[in-house]
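Possible regression after last week's pipeline update?

I re-ran a chain I had predicted before the update to compare outputs. Posting the input and the new output here so someone can diff against the archived version. Not blocking, just want to make sure nothing changed silently.
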Amino acid sequence: MNLDFKCIKCGNDSYFVETVVLPEKNHKLRLNIGTYYLKICSNCGYTEIYSAKILDNSTEKILDVKPEKTTND
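New output (post-update):
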């Protein structure tokens, strides 16, 4: 998660992260369990919610990137 957080409501730069599990409906109307991260401002309580599935996958993609070889002509 991005560490250069600045609250858009109060301008505070400190926060804490909580993990929550919420039920989700899929396209077949079955309930699944989804994990989310709550990023909470420690001053005013403003909260942003992020999908753990997307954040965890993007972290893996970033770690798997191999640098391209460059050639000098």
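Follow-up from reviewer: compared with the archived run. The first strand starts at residue 15 and ends at 25. Marking as no regression found.
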